[in-house]
Amino acid sequence: xxxxxxxLPGDGIGKEVTACGKKILEQVAECFGHQFTFDYATIGHEAxxxxxxxxxxxxxxxxxxSDAILFGAVGHPKYDNDPSAKVRPEQGLLKMxxxxxxxxxxxxxxxxDELLAASSIKPEILKGADxxxxxELTGDVYFGERGRKDQGSTAFDTMIYSRYEVERIAHKAxxxxxxxxxxxxxxxxxxxxxxxxxxxxVVQEVAKQYPDVTVEHMFVDAAAMKLIQNPxxxxxxxxxxxxxxxxxxxxxxxxxxxxxxASASIGDTVGLYEPIHGSAHDIxxxxxxxxxxxxxxxxxxxxxxxxxxxxxxxxxxxxEQTLKDGYRTRDIADAATPHEKILGTEVMGNVVC
Amino acid sequence: xxxxxxxLPGDGIGKEVTACGKKILEQVAECFGHQFTFDYATIGHEAxxxxxxxxxxxxxxxxxxSDAILFGAVGHPKYDNDPSAKVRPEQGLLKMxxxxxxxxxxxxxxxxDELLAASSIKPEILKGADxxxxxELTGDVYFGERGRKDQGSTAFDTMIYSRYEVERIAHKAxxxxxxxxxxxxxxxxxxxxxxxxxxxxVVQEVAKQYPDVTVEHMFVDAAAMKLIQNPxxxxxxxxxxxxxxxxxxxxxxxxxxxxxxASASIGDTVGLYEPIHGSAHDIxxxxxxxxxxxxxxxxxxxxxxxxxxxxxxxxxxxxEQTLKDGYRTRDIADAATPHEKILGTEVMGNVVC
Lengths: 353, 353
Ligand SMILES: CC(C)[C@H](C(=O)O)[C@@H](O)C(=O)O
Ligand SMILES: CC(C)[C@H](C(=O)O)[C@@H](O)C(=O)O
Fold this sequence. Notes:
The structure is a homodimer.
Chain A: E1 2-10, H1 14-32, E2 35-40, H2 45-51, H3 57-64, E3 68-73, H4 77-80, H5 89-99, E4 104-110, H6 123-126, E5 130-136, E6 146-149, E7 154-162, H7 163-178, E8 183-188, H8 194-207, E9 214-219, H9 220-229, E10 236-239, H10 241-251, E11 262-266, E12 271-275, H11 292-304, H12 309-324, E13 327-328, E14 341-342, H13 345-352
Parallel strand pairs in A: 1-2, 1-3, 3-12, 5-10, 8-9, 8-10, 13-14
Antiparallel strand pairs in A: 4-5, 4-11, 6-7, 11-12
Helix pairs in contact in A: 1-11, 1-13, 7-8, 9-10, 11-12
The structure holds 3-isopropylmalic acid (2 copies).
One 3-isopropylmalic acid sits at the interface of chains B and A.
């Protein structure tokens, strides 16, 4: 199989972890006789520094002409602490999602048995938890109108959803539920928000086409609680952009560490794969970041964009074996387990390869 | 001391638990020689059924003329599953918060040592966690303009904050931080939202008046994760209405159960005290609801609205002793602890009294 992959390292630890993700893709190409060619593109703080633009047209063109994208992270503390900054790394990310039509963000939350001890949640609560999140990615308060009024003393953002946006992600989530535990939880705040009432209305309608799936509607506050109280009670979860952002980061604790979680953003054309962790500037350049989320993102890429199931599973098994052999990065280490070997980013990546 | 208290049972388990909260107030009045008079008012589904209005003027008048309010909960599944309902119980709650100017919702999250085992989070992660949330309660997407467009196929809500709204709650949170661990975490989503950028700007400004408090700004997704990963790293948390709704429900898991958490809503005039749990229709009328959140709400009422510190502490100690003696309601029971005695709502309330 011949494929073109764009690597988009971005900011912070993005570079370090995508280097490992790329290496695993090269390894897979070699072992399974595929031809993957790689190209690089810039985004985020790095792109602002070089061009003034958080998503240069050239990057977007490269991505549109590729078969899949492996992305790192964007963000920089410089902007975070300056509420008046006009250009921000995150604008590049949001523009990319919108321009590439990446409306469905899939975030599988699954705990490797070896990491049961690494989570702050009790093993008996976690064991067997396996959740697939569908976070809507191109709508909601991320893309509604925003601004200031009253000489800047009032600020607003608009949460907004249209029927077709809810429909298309609902269909994707229901279809996924059919291949899994046949249960779908739709999360909203319909007791307060009009956009959530539309969300619920549409999910109820779409549900009629999937009589085999049990549907449950849950308020976001209750969902935030139940995820920790009883993670096993969830199968597929579908929710809007903002609630999805919050709940999936929270759910990372079910998987032991944010450093373990991969995500796939898909839509009408090319797919994008990224860790759910961010740029993590506090550990950037130290070589301690966990590369497994990027490696697992590469596994999702092989499966979803290229249909290479065997290759994808081989990568996941390699990660599993690495954990079984006692190799850990700092974030997933458990002081109480003496046989563990703590590795840096690159070596951990090499062990998996 | 002579005081007028309005009891607002509301819907679902609201009646059962406020009955226990009231009983404890009566007990306190008797033991400490105070004169508390009680009046009842209606709100929510119950009020809709009786008058068509989720917050009748008569209720509002009674509350305005009282010294403190003990509230239960509102909500009914009938409306939740009908996105097109025009009148909803929650409207009564929101109107009450707005009309009474209850802009600061205090939610103390503290684990009773006896309940260490009841949480799904590991005891070694929880032990010593003690967080005080300040949730803004009369702004944000709860009160911004909302509606439909394009023949109903698009729905929107407006997240909106003004400078003075952020200032007044920030001051309350900073002042509380001074009396505690001197650390304040402000939670927003300033990398995306304009209302969050205003929020951050104002908190940064107010911070200058409290040089002894260490301030940290955190994105809501990161906060949702860190609350579980390392709850002890938080002291006072201040955040907007929506993020506060989600994070405090999540944080209930730190306290073992939502059934343990009390809250105080304060502003310019009368204070309102309520459990953070909702109407819980699944257990309504079964007599199994945990009354401790309502009892602890009564303790907050005595302390904050009446300045009766000793009385308030006596109530908290009674709760502690009840737990030490092994009495539990279902939600905080731990199957692994054989000496526990599982009680219903009323008996549990009586034991505390
Ligand atoms: C960086 C930020 C804008 C982004 C988001 O909120 O979507 C991130 O948190 C994510 O989840 O991908
Ligand atoms: C019932 C609902 C409107 C309310 C809210 O979202 O504020 C509740 O969840 C709460 O936290 O008091």
